[in-house]
Amino acid sequence: MKYIIEHLDPELYDWCLLEYTHISEIVGKENLIFTNVRNVEERKKLERLGTVEEKSVTQLKYPRLCILDPAASKTLEPADKQSFDYLLFGGILGDWPPRQRTKKELTRKLDAQSRNLGQPQMSTNTAVYVAKKIIDGKKFSEFQFIEELVIPVEDGEEIELPFRFVVENGKPVLAKGYVEFVRKQDVF
Ligand SMILES: C[S@@+](CC[C@H](N)C(=O)[O-])C[C@H]1O[C@@H](n2cnc3c(N)ncnc32)[C@H](O)[C@@H]1O
Questions:
Q1: Residue 92 located in a structural domain
Q2: Per-residue pLDDT for 8 more than 60?
Q3: Confidence of residue 17 (pLDDT cuts 50, 70, 90)
Q4: Contact 67 CB / ligand 1 (< 6 Å)
Q5: What is the pLDDT of residues 53-90, one digit of tens each?
Q6: DSSP string across 132-174
Q7: Is the pTM above the cut of 0.90?
């Protein structure tokens, strides 16, 4: 299985890079393709993590492709491994409330099947993590999730990330350095 990330945010923010680095670790550089990377400097950065295409996935016509979209009516299952060669994800940072950008920017533009990973929104790296585990044989019902991540910061304050995260061995599965990275942001 190959994993495609259609880069849809206006820039390759540090936050995107953190998530994309995690995705490369999850699926392996040889199985990862970034599409729609228009900026030459950004292409150079991403070449360390996978194959990089300047064109959009909507122009590249990959066969046997499945879009991972929270708005899809069917949930991805292990048997889907037989039907698809490419899984496509939106390289979109989480937004709240979700604006159905995957549906607008990918599902409506491509003649391809789509699958959900449950309805709640996950970050792109969490979605890739869950999809890869399902393709490797794990059932969706076997995952343990939390519906938000609370990160304590100074003076008893907290940052709440209203996205679904996978829990394994009692801990959320996060990109390396994620908690420290979130603490340094001043957008909250
Ligand atoms: C942060 S999400 C963006 C979701 C966006 N707000 C929307 O409503 O479509 C980034 C990507 O992860 C994947 N994703 C996240 N949660 C998912 C879910 N529950 N089911 C399927 N795909 C999901 C999708 O490919 C999505 O484009």
A1: yes
A2: yes
A3: very high
A4: no
A5: 999 999 999 999 999 999 999 999 999 999 999 999 99
A6: HHHHTT--GGG--EES-EEEE-GGG-EEEE-SBEEEETTEE--
A7: yes
Closest ligand 1 atom, CA of 70?
A: 20
Atom in ligand 1 nearest the alpha carbon of residue 88:
25
State how many domains the chain has.
1
Quote the ligand 1 centre to 17 CA distance (angstroms).
17
Domain housing 63: 2-138
Mutate to test the pocket of ligand 1, among 8, 58, 102, 119 (most ligand atoms within 8 A of CB): 102
DSSP-derived letter for residue 122 is B
Q: Is residue 99 part of a domain?
A: yes
Using DSSP bridges, classify how beta strands 165-168 and 145-146 pair: parallel, antiparallel or unpaired. Answer: antiparallel
| Distance of alpha carbon 156 from alpha carbon 100, whole angstroms | 34
Residue 154 scores a pLDDT above 90: no
| Domain containing residue 32: CATH number | 3.40.1280.30
Grade residue 187 by pLDDT with cuts at 50, 70 and 90: low
- Judge if the beta carbon of residue 24 lies within 6 A of ligand 1: no
Closest C-alpha to ligand 1, atom 6: 98
Name residue 34's amino acid: F
